[in-house]
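Hi Y.,

Following your request, here is the sequence exactly as I used it, all 421 residues.
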Amino acid sequence: MNHFEYRHGRLHAEDVDLESLARAEGTPAYVYSTATLTRHFQVFDRALEGLDHLVCFALKANSNQAVIATLGRLGAGADVVSGGEMVRALAAGIPPDRIVFSGVGKSQMEMDAAIAARIFQINVESAEELELLSQAAVGRKAVADIVLRVNPDVDAKTHEKISTGKGENKFGIAIDRIAEVANIACDLPGIRLRGLALHIGSQLTDLAPLEQAFGKVIALIKELRAQGHELDRLDLGGGLGIPYRGETPPLPDAYGAMVRRLTQGLEVKLICEPGRLIAGNAGILLSRVLYVKQGSSRQFLVLDAAMNDLIRPAMYDSWHDICAVSPRGGEGSHEVYDVVGPVCESSDIFAKARSLSPLDAGDLVAIMSAGAYGAVMASTYNTRALVPEILVNGADYAVIRPRESIESLIARDQIPPWLKS
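Below is the corresponding structure, written out as tokens. Let me know if you'd prefer a different format.
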């Protein structure tokens, strides 16, 4: 469920009229719903009620500090995959003891910062990383709580570019090497091995791959305990999908029931790291039609938003619903468009042969389900400035990242002395 609904023929974000918002703040713009963020977090959290657990929002999905702070006040932690994301989480008020640092390529500087901040845990993805982390911890006279990320060699049955749990993927430690690396961890100073972790991919629409992967890692925890390792944490990662185009991904309750069944009697603290599930349907990209262009064989709807603002369709061939903010022409009236942006690339296409309410230049459209992997993946390609992010809360809204000016964008460049007149 999301809180983008039509009222009196106009699309609203909660109680905010998107036509009025666009007039005040311009387009393109990302618009997020506090009510949707809140509901999605609470539904997921309640699905694990009664279990010792920590829900860490995956900042890679949406790292705006206002979004992080909204979820933090509900009790969420943060799953970060860079030093920058850790700084964002801390700045947004997430306590260090609710931060998990994941990622396959942590730098020495990032390890030092994580240890200095005394975060909850570091998810280690190789024996080589383990050695560097030990050195960093010893250098700070500290002990780092870690879990080892297992690559369980399970096909998540998702898009190949967001699959992370197969043997061919770069993530995690091969499952048949975990016992060896666990022994290394226990011999290294400054390291405290607390458990295992996994994450097999994103936008999963079936629980079966998760159950298979969870089963493998739970069995591994039992084996390692039998060998003398005292493990009390299990990081299940994230990955549950959302409906973009009629998919019926598992509901959090079904996920929770599966986790409850598999971990019964295991006596571990569970860490879960949803991102898209919480933020995906909590955001839209609001855009205005520049032109309706008749091509030789098709009609193009040219928007002021482009692939640099929302790259998912170009990168993943992903589907996003597109809605007229103020539909007209009566029920059943429609036109077929290729919905495109102004960037000088053939891949700057949001939709092909899409049936929409008739639209003219100046009309507004909402690209739905853009709250995850939207603004965070935006670029300034074609010297297009980053667009604003706006958070709605009931009838109120706030600009939570201002629109960048072209002047400030160009000012980042530094002309060397020999090119100055």
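The two ends are 59 Å apart (CA to CA).

Thanks again,
Q.
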